[in-house]
Specification:
Its cofactor is pyridoxal 5'-phosphate. One of its GO terms (cellular component) is cytosol. One of its GO terms (biological process) is amino acid biosynthetic process. GO terms for molecular function: catalytic activity. The protein has 275 residues and is an alpha+beta fold. The chain folds into two domains: 2-117, Aminotransferase class 4, branched-chain amino acid transferase, N-terminal domain (D-amino Acid Aminotransferase, Chain A, domain 1), CATH 3.30.470.10; 127-273, D-amino Acid Aminotransferase, Chain A, domain 2, CATH 3.20.10. The chain is built from five helices and 15 strands. It has helices spanning 22-26, 44-57, 66-80, 148-159, 202-214; strands spanning 2-5, 8-10, 29-37, 40-41, 85-92, 110-117, 127-133, 164-169, 172-175, 180-185, 188-191, 218-220, 223-224, 233-238, 242-250. The strands form two sheets. Strands 12-11-10-14-15-7-8-9-13 form a nine-stranded mixed beta sheet. The chain has a six-stranded antiparallel beta sheet with strand order 2-1-6-5-3-4. The chain starts with a strand and ends in a 25-residue tail after the last strand. The structure holds N-(5'-phosphopyridoxyl)-D-alanine. The site of N-(5'-phosphopyridoxyl)-D-alanine has 15 residues, from α5 and β14.
């Protein structure tokens, strides 16, 4: 395990983040989670491209070039000594006395990172989703560190015995709390289009590429929640989730703040439909 803060390798909880830090006080920053397989950062270029898009979206000047960032990540992996790891990289607007306005003049962005060992999820048993309303803001495509709706959704799913949330916005099943959502129907893959309402997952992009190579059609379209019973299978994807099959979708009348579409009778997808 290794930590990093503004040029220094540190132990992850050494407490060096200033109190007047905008990520800490406002969630004013962006991040990436990158998977390291066999000591190498997987799909690093795609992660860096997305990180740069996120920085631009919230108007933070990148504190280094993409090449310098890639070098840093490689150094972090070596320093950690891990082969199978998750790399968390965060960039915030910097440290300044608390004020909603951006610091003027601008301050240098703060860069922090951790590298921790992880195990593959691939062999895990199929999981369960809990359907709930997507209460995130309208810019879910930006990978910001503001994740309160996501963590509440995932905790609620966990409390109901599910592995992840199935988020419904405008009647359509678009994403999970920390993964992208996929359906299999009529030998096609269906996933929500990468518009402003979902994070354009790196693993999602990789699966689209794999499907293309395998000749499996992918439809990027929003599947209405009322069509849940028409699907043959469900899976979710993410950097740490990898490709995780789902065999059940729960709906619950007691889930707080949820107004569900009418899914009466569709409470459970049978396991045999989702191979
Ligand atoms: N989460 N959707 C959301 C809301 C996510 O937070 C993530 C990733 C994904 C999948 O994206 P990718 O394939 O690029 O990891 C989709 C990361 C891993 C996290 O917050 O830990």
């Amino acid at each position: 395990i290794v930590g990093y803060y503004n040029g220094q390798f540190v132990t992850p909880n050494s407490g060096i983040v200033p109190l007047d830090e905008r990520g800490h006080q406002f969630g004013d920053g962006v991040y990436e989670v990158i998977r390291c397989y066999g000591g190498r950062a997987f799909l690093l270029d795609w992660h860096l491209d997305r990180l740069w898009m996120s920085l631009q979206a919230i108007r933070i000047a990148p504190p280094f070039t993409k090449d310098e960032c890639a070098t840093l990540i490689e150094r972090l992996i070596v320093e950690s000594g891990e082969l199978e790891a998750s790399i968390y990289l965060q960039i915030t607007r910097g440290s300044a006395i608390r004020n909603h306005l951006f610091p003027n003049p601008a301050v240098k962005a703060n860069v922090s990172a951790t590298v921790r060992p992880v195990a593959s999820q691939i062999a895990k048993e199929p999981g369960t989703l809990l359907m709930m309303a997507d209460e995130r803001w309208a810019n879910a495509w930006i990978k910001t560190i503001n994740l309160l709706p996501n963590i509440l959704a995932k905790q609620t799913a966990h409390d109901m015995g599910a592995d992840e949330a199935l988020l419904v916005r405008d009647g359509a099943m678009i994403e999970s709390a920390s993964s992208n959502l996929w359906f299999v129907r009529d030998n096609q893959l269906i996933t929500a289009p990468a518009d402003r309402y979902i994070l354009n997952g790196i693993t999602r992009r990789f699966v689209i590429q794999l499907a293309d190579r395998l000749g499996i059609p992918v439809r990027e379209t929003k599947l209405p929640a009322k069509d849940l019973a028409t699907v043959d299978g469900i899976f979710i994807t993410g950097t740490l989730t990898e490709v995780f099959p789902i065999h059940r979708v729960l709906t619950h009348p007691d889930v707080p703040y949820v107004s569900l579409p009418d899914v009466t009778g569709l409470q459970q997808l049978s396991a045999d439909k989702c191979q």
